[in-house]
Design brief:
Blueprint (H helix, E strand, L loop, with lengths): L13 H30 L5 H23 L11 H41 L4 H37 L3 H54 L3 H29 L2 H5 L2 H11 L4 E6 L6 H22 L4 E8 L2 E8 L10 H11 L4 E5 L6 E8 L2
Parallel strand pairs: 1-2
Antiparallel strand pairs: 2-3, 3-5, 4-5
EC number: 2.7.13.3
Protein name: histidine kinase
Enzyme class: transferase
Amino acid sequence: MGEGEDARGEKGVGEGGRVRRGAGVLLGVLVTPLLLLHLPLALLPGGGGAGAAAVTDRLAALERARRTAFCGDRHPDRYRAEPRVLRRYLAARAGTGLVTAVVLGLVGCGALLAGLLAAGAVRGSLGWSELAGQVLLGGVLLFLAVQGLLSLAALETRLARDCFGPSETELLRRRVTELADSRAAVLHAVDAERRRIERDLHDGVQQRLVALRLLLARAGRGTDPRRTADLLGQAHREAGDLLTELREVAWRVHPSALDALGLDEALAGIAARAALPLRIHYAVPGPLPEAVRTAAYFVVSECVTNAAKHSGAAAVDVRVEQDGARLTVRVGDDGGGGADPAGGGLAGLRGRLAALDGTLHVHSPHGGPTVVTAELPCT
């Protein structure tokens, strides 16, 4: 695991994650006697010498391995806490482990009493009113016990993060670095987009304007009415092509339909102008933030353009779906693959998404197919 990974434990997914966390809690309780034996060493000034320091290191390594294997923590490998921090963590863990063991013991006793009450109710030696009162009291105590266990687990996670890294200060420093990097990526993407627009204007629109001017000049100097009519016809067609190219440039800068009609209509505009058949599945129930819909539009536009120019694909499939507070844009084609995730266009998209705390994943093996997935928070 890299140093850039945090220690904020991954949330377990499904039953397997809950079972692993439960096993981790039980193992933590079993380790508690060792931590209690180590507690006098942790309280000694200077840590008790080299032998005690070695014991501290071994117990800390055991705790780190337990948190990683059962609780899903991701601690940076090269982060090493000071001996004083390790001793403080092990002392705190001894306390939380002891309290956890007591709470689990109370839960076990409660389960045993519940069994005795159920047996008494079956035999008829316990009245229903008394049984109802005992069940109510037991439910309240069980709720408090569960809340206590959850609070202890959260406290243990926080202690492990502070000890094994990264600390709150380190997390803040990384966040500042990420924001600075994303800002630099956005500036780079903006500069690249400006250069592309300048190139489009210079190589496309400007050349057509020069050709139109020459056609009009030749028509103005002509003496043959038929020849003049031909030149004016060419100038008319050139003006139409020029208008079409200007609209294309304007759409690539920022499509007006995106603000006026929404993302779905803007994507329909991409499909109408695309050189490949484009299938669009749009499942977004409500309006999106302006920055999110703009980023999603450019993801689709860039991927469709790349597919038409480089992939040799016969069709492109676009899926835009919102799941809660996250928008997922998936663009796939049936071309030859081999797209470079570090290429200029995709790198610019990655920088644009990173500025919104979004991600871009490119899967494009040689031989295809290519699938580009973007995820954006909608908050």
